[in-house]
Amino acid sequence: MRLKYDVDTKILFQIGDPLDQCCATYLHNALYEFANINAVNLSVPVPKGGLGDFVKAAKTIHAAGFDLTMPHKTDIIPFLDECDPASRAFKCVNHVKIADGRLIGVGLDGAGMGLSLQYEMGDISGRHALIIGAGAVAGPIAADLCSRGVKKFTIVNRTLEKAQYVADTLRNIYGVETSFGPFSEEFLSSVAPEISLAVQCTCLGGGSHWGQFPHLGFISRLPKNCIAADVLYPTTDFLEEAKRQGLPTVSGKGMLYQQQLAMMEFYFGVKLGADALQEAKEALEVAIAMRTIRNEKMKEQ
What proportions of the chain, in percent to the nearest 5, are helix, strand and coil? Predict the structure, then answer.
């Protein structure tokens, strides 16, 4: 780590709850070192409801910024002084820069998934996308897919009002065809034959603190050319079943390391080239291995 441990060392944080399965901190630090940035990123568990105290503390110590994961991506918005329109519309911010005491937020999850799909699968224009879940990342991901030519969306969620909000916002802003329905096996099975891109945006099926993905039967009804993508990594119930059905899959690993380039420019004004992606890939694999070892140790205790 190229740290000088001096007054110029920039301090950033990764916050969320829980964080024991999060690999982002290691990945961020690897990119700082790759770019020769005098900065360090630290993991700090912040429970839901604790953002006010954290923001006050971050400003007090003149932190350069912080990255957010669940459950803060929506809750941070009232604290922001500035936010890009898409992130505000879909209520999802995962990076905050602190400049002259002002909080500037941006959501990069959408770009990360879109770039990952394009990088691994090529042109995705003209597809009918199924967005599973209507939480913080679903809207930004769908918005980025609009910019890549996806023309039709079906949103499913346990709370129908949230699914409708994402569907209506996409239609009103981007002019795409949308529909929505319940997160149920029956509804998923009914729409599956029409789907050519399925993106799993919930926290289900990733192990540890997350519950199992409850509906897997519909995957057998997806067309064989349907791409199955997930925001979680390295794999999930959803991705494993998609693989068993012979579908092309994309895990959340690509989403995470693809958005690192945008993150570095946002915080530090540094534009990294494509060679940084390999560094990010290697760093993420190391971080996942370290997480696996920690999980094994926790089981033994």
Answer: 45, 20, 35
Q: Does residue 160 contact residue 180 with C-beta atoms inside 8 Å? A: yes
- The conformation of residue 136, written as its DSSP 8-state character, comes to T
Consecutive H or E run containing 155: strand 152-157
What's the one-letter identity of residue 164?
Answer: Q
What tokens does 207 get? 């192990």
Closest CA to 229 of 200, 188, 258: 200
pLDDT digits (tens, 9 = 90+) for 213-255: 889 999 999 999 999 999 998 899 999 999 999 999 999 988 8
Residue 189 · residue 219 · CB < 8 Å: no
How many alpha carbons fall within 13 Å on the CB side of residue 244? Answer: 13
- Residue 211 DSSP code: P
Distance CA 248, CA 150 (A): 17
* Secondary structure class of 187 (helix, strand, coil): helix
Residue 253 phi, psi (nearest 5): -60, -45
Q: What is the DSSP letter of 102?
A: E
Is residue 104's pLDDT more than 90? yes
- Of 276, 245, 275, which is closest to residue 260 (Cα–Cα)? 276
Q: What pLDDT digit, counting tens, does each position of 168-212 carry? A: 999 999 999 999 999 999 999 999 999 999 999 998 877 655 578
Closest CA to 210 of 57, 22, 25, 75: 22
Among the listed residues 101, 281, 84, the one whose alpha carbon sits nearest the alpha carbon of residue 93: 84
- The reported pLDDT for the residue numbered 131 is 98
pLDDT beyond 70 at 118 = yes
